[in-house]
Amino acid sequence: MFQQITKGIRISVISEYNGDFLNDGLINYAFTYTVKIENQSNDVVQLINRNWKILQTNRRPYFVEGDGVIGQKPILKSGVSHTYSSNCLLTSPIGSMSGFYTMINFSTAKEFEVEIPVFDLAATFTLN
Known about the structure:
The protein is mainly β. The protein has no helices and nine strands. The strands form two sheets. Strands 4, 5, 6, 8 and 9 form a five-stranded antiparallel β-sheet that branches. Strands 1-2-3-7 form a four-stranded antiparallel β-sheet, with no helix packed on it. The radius of gyration is 16 Å and the shape is elongated.
């Protein structure tokens, strides 16, 4: 498990390899990742945006950004957590993801960024 705490928000991530398949002559490696967002601050916050940096072997990084996570913009009171799972396809068996969430603090009405720790995406056959 990979974890990071930013401004009282703990992000925990677990990734899993789900196999590979052929698509247009290229092997695609499928991964699932599960993210738990825990509000350990005293304030109410809302996740409003996500920004991902995705790396894979012998490729340039690519970036994904958008509103919320899996169609949701969760509001987290103090002591509350939100967990979701999503997927990533790579054209190499090894890669990583990192990024940040943009959140808003309801007490101050200010936006802030919460770091998502770098986590590995590795096909099981690449591990020793």
